[in-house]
Target: Succinate-semialdehyde dehydrogenase
Amino acid sequence: MAFAQVGAMVQLKNMALFKSQGLIGGEWTDAHDGRTLAVNNPATGEIIANVPFMGKVDAQKAIAAASVAFQPWSKRTAFDRCKLLRKWFDLLLENKEDLAKLMVLENGKPLAEAIGEVHYGAGFVEYYAEEGKRVYGDIIPSPFPTKRMLVMKQAVGVVGAITPWNFPLAMITRKVAPALAAGCTIVVKPAELTPLTALAAAELALQAGIPSGVMNVVMGDAIEIGAALMESNEVRKITFTGSTHVGKILMAAAAKTVKKISLELGGNAPLIIFNDADIEIAVKGALHGKFRNTGQTCVCVNRILVQDGIYDEFAAAFTKAVQELQVGNGLEAGVTQGPLINEASLEKVDKHVQDAVSKGAKVLVGGKRHSLGRTFYEPTVLCNATDDMLIFREEVFGPVAPLMRFHTDEEAIKMANDTEFGLAAYAYTENIEHGWRVAEALDYGMVGLNETLISTEVAPFGGTKQSGLGREGSNYGIDEYLELKYLCLGNIKQPFMC
Ligand code: SIN
Model:
């Protein structure tokens, strides 16, 4: 496609948000060697922008800029930082249509979901603007009459944030907002597939008055940029959302410079529907929990375990609901399911379905590529799924819902916990005592009881086992960007006795 045509289909109210350069030290910047990377619309295959394909040298410049900005930023008061973050929040919401449109164009998600993501993403900025004011320390009762002991919390330093394509805004603000509120500066590497929303958000951060170098954005060669972040002694913290495979590589690499690290990795979420569930509520929950973002979230339901007393009734009602989903270009009215992000994702989804069918699963609806072509896949329900199928073990990351039958509570909990992942799990029952015991037994970082939409800035998001380390969101999330400093005051004289 001719250069002039690229970007022509991106019509925003505020074209200043359509950025196609990286941001280093407050300057919009090309890659040092001029390389570029095409950003595609997964719904149409069109190239919507060419952005710099940056590498190690560019990442090192961004780290240097973040290091220079760290002292002045961390020395400001939390109240001062709050004002700027709050302004950023306002600008994100004022520009929500444009941000959402960029997201649909580069990610494919339906417009209504993209608008929802702007609210979700901006929520982290609003929340942490205030939370920065509550970074309290402690005074420890001293065991020694001549000593006083205190703990203060200080910004960890320069942060490297590596974010995924499935939430092009929210996964950035979920990291940047607590980092900046704590007094850290940051180098963000957004996914190569979806850099445009990140760049627009960075432009709004500049417009909000967040100083140059506090937030930098570099994208391109993931290996080179990752290496620069991991090798740098100045980068004191890495925060990553993505696959367990890459998370393990980062964790090993962090050892070289002993960096603080938080990881939000893969999941394999079970949804357990007991005989005592309200079937109508459970069908809605399964639909939202499975098909959000066309099944492309780490907390998406991956396995639906249904007790035999309601299995057939649930399967029929759920299949009917899935048949009503509208597949198409996310900018078209009424569309609820967009394309998958790329051909590799489509192939993986199809492989899981073929594998399940070859091992005895039955397709109730869907089960193949959509007639729209490209990376569209039919929303799919499979029944008779079993634990020897790939879909039981691996995250499908697509619009496929396998139903498995169980008889007893113990069997369901055993199946649910039979995975190396531990991000989110869900259960439906109308009996609160039953639900409470089930929630306690699930080895997961997050449990939704009669609810599958659990993500919010006010609650701690994160997993156990190979789903990661640390928590994002809530009052706990800011701790990931803080170091504790113990201060001992010695030689305190006898207390006044008056
Ligand atoms: C993710 O898929 O990594 C995040 C999902 C969410 O925030 O709900």
In short: The mean pLDDT is 97.
